[in-house]
Each structure stands twice: as structure tokens, then as C-alpha cells.
């Protein structure tokens, strides 16, 4: 149900494909309206409000992350990031934060940290899915009893009308769900080792600690470490001479180490041991004068670093078509290696083509694709067949996270990569009653919890773990290299 306190707000939303009820202005009328709702009724409150923070303008939209009312515990609104994302896609200026409800509103400066104030929202929640969208019409800087109010009012009402498609999306996505949690998911041992390496350097030596490129491919991890004093650079020449430098988990070419030594840097190598194994394999085959087919994505940092071990001997093979065309110097002296974060079945197809073309082809002693990539792909394959939708938590530049999306899609299930709940599109959730959730090896576990919490704001959620294989691998932290 879409609740609008005022007649003018209801008029602004006329034609919306959701039942609209005018509940009346103020807490008494809101409370009376709520008493007539069936328990558990989904309620979306939409209307105008007073902006509570400096700089807010008429027409700005506030989506409540919690609603505060007198004599009441703050009420969290878990679906707020999903609704805010839908509104932003409409081109609106959207703020996420608390909304306070008061028996009456007065002028003067705002208090309590709320972004907006109204007189109804706290009294309209009835225990079911709940959300609040308020459009700023006045503020402490621009109170109602001032010239310009009619103009600001029209601007706010136009913005409220523009919200309608997002309100419809929220209503269509509401309902109970089962969440299938793929296990294992999130951090692998190599990622944990890399993050702990930066954390330890900050703890022991204090900031700044320089890190070449992203320590792992996750925007949340990078932002957190940057806030604690890590300085991320693209190349070694951006690091002051004599400083401390951490090398990322994806590995680097030998030339990077030489450049670091030339600048007198103290280097801490956080390269994942499984990536280091591939580097060693490429060096070994190059000393045998082999052409090494490196199966992987040429733009990925791991492939750049691996290829740098023997650039004259390595040919990058990103797909089957390339595998059918690639020409080594000597077909009798050929071997292959793999990027560790590839999709297992796709990499296997490429390797099969190479084997068919080159009978003398030799491979690594053990599979290059890391255990974490294999396990997570197996886990997402296990839930995809039972799900209407799969959400993969991970950043767009995370190869292993993107591969999880592809694995789910090859199983016939729609799948999407999201960095956090704010990237979930409500339209994906309409009709999706069983949602699979997993996370790439570089995504923090707490982000999965935030996704599940956001889904719970749309209706009751039953979460079920689906464990494909247990993981108990850990790696020792690296030592500093002077």
C-alpha cells in the first residue's frame, strides 16, 4: 500500500500502479489509518517533508534508513538501499539516512542527525515491509513562511511525481523469499593474507604504507584500508624513495621488483602463493625454451605479472578462437599455464583445443586454477538450479566474481554482479522468490549479510546454507624484503 498523508501528495502520484491511500496529516490520523491495516501489510510512505541538514534543496529525495518517533525505538528500514538505487536511476537527487517523525514541526535548526522530518511515518508502520520516501519542500534555510515557497512546493511535487516508477518497483518486489547461500563464499586464504599484510604494516609502522595497485579487487576493501592510512599507487615511481611498498595479491613482473629496489623501497610481497606457483611454472618452462600458452585475460593484472616473467616465451590465450589460431615458435616445445581466477569449464575448453592442436603440449604439475575459484564455482553451480535469481557480491574488476556470474548463467539462471546492496535492481526481484547469494573470493563476508538484510526489508526471508565443500586453508604472512 502506498500511503500519502496529504491530498496534494496523492494527486501527485495519481495513476501509479499501486493502491494509494491518503492517511491524513499528523500522528493522530496516521495512527488511525494504521489501525485499519491488516498486520503485515506492506506500507510505503511517500510525501513531502522538511529537510533537516544544511544544503538540502527543494526536490531532493530522502529515503529513510530508519524512522524515529517520540517514545519509540528507531525502526530500521532494510530495503532503503534498493529503493534509493531505483530512485537514482530516475535521475533524482537522493539522500539515504534517518527520518524523524514529530507530533508537530517547528522552525529553527535541526537536531538529532535526521535528514528529514515529517509528522506521520513513525505511526504508519504495521510490522510488514516498510519504506519511506520523502521529498524536501522546506528547510531551516528556506522555511515555509518565506517568499519562494510556491516555487519550491511545485518543484517538490514534480520530484514526488517522478518517484512513481521506483515506488512501483518496490511494491512489485515485495514478498517472502528463500535465500540460498552458497558455501564457500567470500574471502579466500590468499585474499585474507594480502589484507592482513597491509593491516600489519600499518599497525607496526604506521601510515603511510604504499600499495601498488589494488591489494585485492574489491572497492570496499580498498576504501577501508585507504581510510586507515594505506596509499594506493599505480606504479612504483609514485612511491617516495625509501618508503615501504606492499605488492598486491595478483603478483607483479620482475621489472616491478627491480624498480622498487632501485628506489630503495622496503618491499612486502603479498602475492598469493598460488599465483606465485604459476609464475614459477612459467619461468621453468621458459628455461626449457618452451612457448608458454598463458590461458587468461590479457588485461588482468595477474596475467600482466605472469607474462612479465618471460615475455618472449609467453602467448596469452583468452578464448577458444585464439587457441585455434595461435602459432608457437616450435610446436614440439609448448606448454600452458592458467590465470588462477578463470571459470573452470571455460579454461578447460581452451586447454582441450590446445592439446588437440599440439600433441606435445605439457601442462602444470597441478591445476593452476586456485582451490577457492574452483570451490566457489562449484558452490554457485549447486544453488543456481534451485534459484530464480543469483546475486554475486563482488566488484566489477574482480575476475573470479565475474566468473561466478557466468557459471550461474550457464546453469540457466539470471545472475548479476553487485558491489553492495545499493547495486541491486528492484526489477530483478519481482517474482523472484528463491534468490541465490554468493560472493567472490575478494568480497568481504559482511557484504553478503548486508544483501540478505536488504532483501529482508521486502518481506520475510528464510536463509539456507548450501555447502559444496569445506575450506580450511591458510597461508603464512610474508616477510619484508629490504
UniProtKB/TrEMBL annotation:
Binding note for cofactor: Binds 1 [4Fe-4S] cluster per subunit.
Assigned EC number: 1.17.7.4
Catalyzed reactions: isopentenyl diphosphate + 2 oxidized [2Fe-2S]-[ferredoxin] + H2O = (2E)-4-hydroxy-3-methylbut-2-enyl diphosphate + 2 reduced [2Fe-2S]-[ferredoxin] + 2 H(+); dimethylallyl diphosphate + 2 oxidized [2Fe-2S]-[ferredoxin] + H2O = (2E)-4-hydroxy-3-methylbut-2-enyl diphosphate + 2 reduced [2Fe-2S]-[ferredoxin] + 2 H(+)
Pfam families, per database record: LYTB
Cofactors (names): [4Fe-4S] cluster
UniProt keyword terms in alphabetical order: 4Fe-4S, Iron, Iron-sulfur, Isoprene biosynthesis, Metal-binding, Oxidoreductase
Active site positions, chain numbering: 302 (proton donor)
Binding-site positions, (2E)-4-hydroxy-3-methylbut-2-enyl diphosphate: 217, 250, 300, 340, 398-400, 442
Biochemical pathway: Isoprenoid biosynthesis; dimethylallyl diphosphate biosynthesis; dimethylallyl diphosphate from (2E)-4-hydroxy-3-methylbutenyl diphosphate: step 1/1; Isoprenoid biosynthesis; isopentenyl diphosphate biosynthesis via DXP pathway; isopentenyl diphosphate from 1-deoxy-D-xylulose 5-phosphate: step 6/6
Record carries keyword RNA-binding: no
Entries under InterPro entries matching the protein: LytB/IspH, Nucleoside_phosphorylase_sf
List of residues binding dimethylallyl diphosphate: 217, 250, 300, 398-400, 442
Residues at which [4Fe-4S] cluster binds: 188, 272, 370
Residues the entry annotates as binding isopentenyl diphosphate: 217, 250, 300, 398-400, 442
Enzyme class: oxidoreductase
Similarity comment: family membership: Belongs to the IspH family.
Primary role: Catalyzes the conversion of 1-hydroxy-2-methyl-2-(E)-butenyl 4-diphosphate (HMBPP) into a mixture of isopentenyl diphosphate (IPP) and dimethylallyl diphosphate (DMAPP). Acts in the terminal step of the DOXP/MEP pathway for isoprenoid precursor biosynthesis.
The name this protein goes by in its record: 4-hydroxy-3-methylbut-2-enyl diphosphate reductase
Organism of derivation: Pseudonocardia adelaidensis
Amino acid at each position: 500500500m502506498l500511503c500519502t498523508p496529504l491530498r496534494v501528495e496523492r494527486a501527485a502520484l495519481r495513476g501509479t500502479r499501486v493502491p494509494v491511500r491518503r492517511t491524513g496529516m499528523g500522528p493522530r490520523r496516521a495512527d488511525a489509518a494504521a489501525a485499519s491495516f491488516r498486520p503485515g501489510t506492506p506500507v510505503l510512505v511517500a510525501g513531502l517533508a522538511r529537510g533537516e541538514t544544511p544544503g538540502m534543496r527543494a526536490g531532493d529525495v530522502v529515503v529513510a534508513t530508519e524512522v524515529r518517533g517520540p517514545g519509540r525505538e528507531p525502526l530500521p528500514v532494510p530495503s532503503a538501499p534498493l529503493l534509493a538505487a531505483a530512485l537514482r536511476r530516475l535521475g533524482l537527487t537522493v539522500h539515504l539516512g534517518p527520518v524523524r517523525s514529530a507530533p508537530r514541526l517547528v522552525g529553527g535548526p535541526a537536531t538529532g542527525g535526521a535528514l528529514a522530518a515529517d509528522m506521520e511515518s513513525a505511526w504508519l508502520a504495521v510490522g510488514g515491509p516498510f519504506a519511506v520516501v520523502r521529498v524536501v519542500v522546506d528547510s531551516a534555510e528556506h522555511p515555509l513562511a518565506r517568499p519562494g515557497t510556491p516555487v519550491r512546493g511545485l518543484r517538490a511535487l514534480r520530484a514526488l511525481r517522478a518517484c512513481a516508477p521506483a515506488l512501483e518497483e518496490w511494491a512489485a518486489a515485495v514478498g517472502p523469499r528463500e535465500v540460498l547461500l552458497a558455501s564457500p563464499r567470500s574471502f579466500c586464504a590468499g585474499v585474507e593474507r594480502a589484507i592482513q599484510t597491509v593491516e600489519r604494516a600499518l599497525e607496526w609502522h604506521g601510515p603511510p604504507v604504499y600499495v601498488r595497485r589494488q591489494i585485492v579487487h574489491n572497492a570496499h576493501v580498498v576504501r577501508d584500508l585507504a581510510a586507515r592510512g594505506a596509499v594506493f599507487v599505480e606504479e612504483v615511481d609514485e612511491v617516495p624513495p625509501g618508503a615501504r611498498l606492499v605488492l598486491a595479491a595478483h603478483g607483479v613482473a620482475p621489472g616491478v621488483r627491480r624498480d622498487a629496489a632501485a628506489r630503495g623501497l622496503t618491499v612486502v610481497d603479498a602475492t598469493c602463493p598460488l599465483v606465485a606457483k604459476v609464475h614459477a611454472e612459467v619461468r621453468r618452462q621458459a628455461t626449457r625454451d618452451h612457448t608458454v600458452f598463458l590461458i587468461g585475460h590479457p588485461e588482468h593484472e595477474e596475467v600482466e605479472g605472469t607474462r612479465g616473467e618471460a615475455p618472449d616465451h609467453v602467448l596469452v590465450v583468452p578464448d577458444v578462437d585464439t587457441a585455434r589460431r595461435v602459432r608457437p615458435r616450435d610446436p614440439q616445445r609448448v606448454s600452458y599455464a592458467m590465470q588462477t581466477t578463470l571459470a573452470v569449464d571455460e579454461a578447460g575448453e581452451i586447454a582441450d583445443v590446445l592439446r588437440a592442436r599440439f600433441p606435445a603440449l605439457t601442462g602444470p604439475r597441478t591445476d593452476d586454477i586456485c582451490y577457492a575459484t574452483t570451490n566457489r564455482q562449484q558452490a554457485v553451480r549447486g544453488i543456481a538450479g534451485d534459484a530464480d535469481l543469483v546475486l554475486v557480491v563482488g566488484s566489477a574488476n574482480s575476475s573470479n566474481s565475474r566468473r561466478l556470474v557466468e557459471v550461474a548463467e550457464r546453469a540457466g539462471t539470471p545472475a548479476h554482479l553487485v558491489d553492495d546492496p545499493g547495486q541491486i535492481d528492484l526489477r530483478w526481484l519481482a517474482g523472484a522468490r528463491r534468490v541465490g547469494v554468493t560472493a567472490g573470493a575478494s568480497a568481504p563476508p559482511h557484504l553478503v549479510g548486508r544483501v540478505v538484510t536488504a532483501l529482508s526489508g521486502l518481506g520475510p526471508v528464510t536463509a539456507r546454507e548450501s555447502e559444496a565443500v569445506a575450506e580450511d586453508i591458510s597461508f603464512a604472512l610474508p616477510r619484508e624484503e629490504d
